[in-house]
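Pair request: fold both.
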Amino acid sequence: MALSAAQGANNASGSVTTWGQGGNMAQVNIAISDQSTTVAPAAVFLKAVAGGGFNTGTAPAGTPYDPTWHEITYIWTVKTGPAMSFERAPFLNMPPEWKAAGLYYGPEVAIVFDQPGTYDIELYAVDQFGNDGMTTTTVVVANADGRFPGTDTICYSQTDFNGAPAGATQVTSFAALSSAIANKAGGDVRVLFRAGNDFRSAITSQINLT
């Protein structure tokens, strides 16, 4: 993009880098947290990994500065899947377009999927020179009741187990909860706490001063 200006007898000319236009195709990948037991509601952590094709600076020797974190813009979009109910309304002075559920920014994001289903996520990355890349990934979120039958569920309440899944282990103390988890021999287990109950556990610690 060429720029020229004239005022009276004084002329100036030069060039201006156009942000986000005229760049080359670059490569970006997605690193995703372990999904071996992704059940709703599920928090999934995603990280952008910039590959070749981006034009970024070089970190000064001996510094932890990563130019791919600071000189590339990352935009994440949940393209398909069940409607997401999360809204960012409590944050003040946030641009309206940033409040939309399913839209995220930055090299690392954490997305909460509160409903089971298959979600397609798109990542778009662009540097200040317009070099950009795009990639997608899929997150499958299972239904908790299907993933954890009653026999793999522990319900904790002081007195009320109404509505507990059939076959679930029922406990009334943290000691009993710890024992019930140990009895599962390291297998995956779901623990449900009764809504409205107060759960407290005493912790004893010792500090030695020398």
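--- second member of the pair ---
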Amino acid sequence: METNFIQISDIHHHFSNYDSLKMRLMLEEYLKELSQGTRFDFVLITGDLSDKGAGFNDEISGFLDLILSSLNLTRKDIFIVPGNHDLKRNVPRKYVIEGIKASLSKDELDEALKTEDTKGILLESFKDFFEFYKEYTEEDYPRESFHFIKTKGKCNIIHLNTCLTAYTSNEEGTLLIGRQKLIGCLSALKRDPSKINIAIGHHTIDCFHPDEITSIVANFDDFGIDMYLSGHVHKPKYHIEANVHTPYINLVSGATHSDDYAVGGFISAKVAFDSHELEVQYHKWHNVDEYWSTTNDMGRLAKSGTLKHKLKKFEKRAKQLDVSVDLTSLRDDIEDKVRIDEDEFKQFIIDFHQHPKKKGEITSYQTKQKEIEEKFDNMRCSSSFEKMFLDYAQYFTAIEEILNSTSYIEADKKEIVSELVIETYLGIHSKYDSGDVIFTTMVDAIQKQYSETLSYSPAKTRRYIRILTCWSIYDCNIFNENKVEA
């Protein structure tokens, strides 16, 4: 499985000299060529659609439409954050920002945003952008949130407004992100190791105040950001942040206009979930000969034309999924391979119910029974697990004989097995993505809880618990999640 996307930045559409016009015109055809061999899933626009606060018009919308149609995408497949040229600057904004930056408090921006007057002045500058965003995407920009998350397939796209304190030139190294707002946004990310977290913003990380940089990097690490895509500097580059627990990559796109400073370019990227790798290609506009192509002049790691970056988070997940559950050893060698004495097994069930370790009422309910084969597929169970389950299925009749009669167990104790298995399952299933691993972890936990209560050998106790757990799967109490789509 893979996800492919395009990042385009710094369009500055009002800047329309010959080179810029030709670059944009040829971009449409070039993207069509790329889409012939690759199915793209979405487009990221990282700010400065406009130029010097000149506002938004139908030409900007038309240009974005051409980009999307070239990639066989629609307006539902584009994600946009503002740049410093997309806002209007005025004197009140200048004074408010100067006051915020002059404060010694690390929380000054967040505190200022809690004041309606100050927040209103800062947000007023984005009015044109907000109106354009709503008209183009048919959705309101979450202006009150400042930073927010949208989901596309297996990607969380974290939108960061890096322009909250932008108002003048040469302000790199002084910008503020609003750290309370940042962690408020990032903490909403679900801890889902199967999804990739893509943060997008206009400014590069080093445009922020040094104190802010430290916090941004730490929070990207703590909340599992896999990559940060930005623009602003009009020159493509990349940087791998290694001083973190899980290295993430900063990708910076070139510009989509041409002047004496800007390097024309954009980024295409592929997330290969099977190989746990991000593959990035930088595309460059050649002004002299007037054509687009991939480029390999982005440094040593990209000398082949493709920058490859291992997604450590997915590697960790793969190791978890590759945990070998040796179902032969689970049968505890010689004793566990002996055919079960049915009378002894029935007595085990009775003893198990007469010595509950968990007191109090736990509501038990059953979902609509699904085909066992579908459960195995959804829970990523191995063929060996399925064989073990079928071997144990012959004993389900004994369990039901016990539980369907009050001759063996008092009526008020009949739910003990189901409740214990369900509770154990609920406590661990979200931690693992393999049904084999979930099953083995459950058996470990239940055996540990009852090891000193039941007078059976450890091998028999373990096997009986496995049978009871398999019966709970059959009875539709557990294994109802879909780990494939999660």
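Observation on the second member. Residues 323-340, 355-369 have pLDDT under 50 and may be disordered.
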